[in-house]
Amino acid sequence: MTGRTVLAFNPTSDFSGAERILLTLARFLPEYGWGMAVAVPGPGALAERLAAYRIPVLSVAPHGPAGTRASFAIRSLVWGVRLARLASTVGADLIHANGHMASLSVGIACRLGGLPGLVHLHGCPSTRLGGLFWMVGASVVPQATFVAVSHHVAGRWFRKRRGGVWVVHNGIDLEEFPWRGSMSSADPLIVNVGQLTPRKAQHLLLDALSLLGLKGLRPRVAFAGGVVSSGIDTGSQSQRYFDRLRQRVKELCLESQVSFLGEVRDIPGLLRRAVVMAHTALEEPLGIALQEAMAVGVPVVAPRVGGIPELIQNGETGLLYDRGDAEGLAAALARVLLDEGLAARLSLAARRRMEERFDARAMAQRMAQIYDMVGAVSGPRPNGPVYNS
Questions:
Q1: Cβ neighbours of residue 167 under 8 Å, at least 6 residues apart?
Q2: Over the chain, what is the mean pLDDT?
Q3: Do 335 and 376 share a domain, yes or no?
Q4: CA 26 → CA 37, 46, 178, 309, 326, distances in Å?
Q5: CA dist., res. 367 & res. 26, Å (int)
Q6: Do 210 and 333 fall within a single domain?
Q7: Can you tell me whether residue 189 is helix, strand or coil?
Q8: Is 387 part of any domain?
Q9: Does a structural domain hold residue 347?
Q10: In the predicted model, what is the mean pLDDT of residues 19-41?
């Protein structure tokens, strides 16, 4: 590696939103003087993606199913010791925790290795375990610096904490997701991208699809995302939800319209075939899948939750509906499906917004600037929320 080195730690081997951003950072940081090596629990989709871009991948095994909460906590302690050794091996200048569940391990490694640490907050605590790891990890990381992916996330984590947080919105590689423009089709395809878990609420789209049928609209729907296999979302919970989704398809007689694609490697290719993206999450830090669709020019319909309103301007760059409202989702989808002029306007405005505010290089440059501050002994710390807008 050239320049300075950051060792990033991701506590799972799956590949989802937080991992997409980590991969993007690792690809673009060298342009701004920082190289990244990534430590993972073991082999998996994340390690494969990193290796494909020749990004150094290190293992902090043991690796295996999530198991009990206690076993995850114990492994986090072990990972912390091994991270300290890996940081020494790669000559790291600082350690980056990719998510609050990585903060305990990174905190231990920073203390053992005498290195500064940064915690990248991709979401909000959804379980007591997540909140516990946040409290313990945040106290363990010496002179910790915190970076949140949206104003919403920053507010949720820091509303009761003195001090500040940097806010760096996620960015997308716009060359990887080129604009294809709006499109119409006699056989329209709606896509939903995300892991199959209750918090992603894909059942809402099935209910909306049934409501569209009552209006004489019969679009196809493709779900791109698999069952969670590791981490704090246990595989058994995700598998049960997937089973319920398939049962719901049968109950609503939607077999001819719905397909479950599993994990899709070529997301840009899938988006180029889509007429609209339907997002259904009950909580969303910002919305990487939405950003990718907007970059390509796919009109997006999403719930008014979390950080999504920071990304989507309702009626201008996408359409918003109320959280958990299948009827509102169906109405918004119908607007896009029936109004080609609206779809074209949303497509162009969405791409422009991505170019102006959510480019991968801008994200990497801002993160590199924060790394520079974190690595400097006398570097400034925010005493209130600091945004990259």
A1: 147, 148, 149, 150, 151, 153, 154, 385, 386, 387, 388
A2: 88
A3: no
A4: 8, 12, 21, 27, 38
A5: 11
A6: yes
A7: strand
A8: no
A9: yes
A10: 96
What's the number of domains the chain is made of?
A: 2
Number of H helices, E strands in the chain: 14, 14
pLDDT of residue 386: 43
Report whether pLDDT(232) > 70.
Answer: no
Cβ atoms of 298 and 274 closer than 8 Å:
yes
CA–CA dist 253, 206 (Å, integer): 10
Burial degree of 54 (CB within 10 A; 0-12, 13-18, 19+): exposed
Q: pLDDT for 57-70, tens place per residue?
A: 999 975 544 444 55
Q: Is the predicted pLDDT of residue 388 greater than 80, yes or no?
A: no
Residue 180 in 3-state DSSP?
A: coil
CA 309 from centroid of its chain's CA atoms: 16
Note whether residue 265 is domain-resident. yes
CB 34, CB 55: distance < 8 Å: no
| Shared domain check, 238 and 99 | no
Coil, strand or helix: which one is 97? strand
Q: How many CB atoms lie within 10 A of CB 55?
A: 21
Residues 197 and 306 in one domain: yes
DSSP 88: H
User: How many Å apart are CA 31 and CA 52, to the nearest integer?
Assistant: 19
320 and 368 assigned to the same domain: no
Domain that holds residue 213: 189-357
- Say how far apart CA 177 and CA 26 lie, in whole Å: 18
pTM of the model: 0.87
**pLDDT band at 18; cut points 50, 70, 90:** very high
Report d(CA 34, CA 146) in Å as an integer.
18
How far apart (Å, rounded) are the C-alpha atoms in residues 307 and 139?
26
Nearest one of 17, 65, 73, 63 to 39, comparing CA atoms? 63
> Do 107 and 46 reside in the same domain of the chain?
yes
Look at residue 385 and give its three-state secondary structure.
Answer: coil
125 with 8, same domain?
Answer: yes
Distance between CA atoms of residues 231 and 42, nearest Å: 12
CATH value at residue 227: 3.40.50.2000
pLDDT at 361 over 80: yes
Task: Judge whether residue 239 has pLDDT over 60.
Answer: yes
Same domain, 242 and 283: yes
pLDDT band of residue 275 (cuts 50, 70, 90) is very high
Residue 81 within any structural domain of the chain: yes
Report the residue count for the chain. Answer: 389
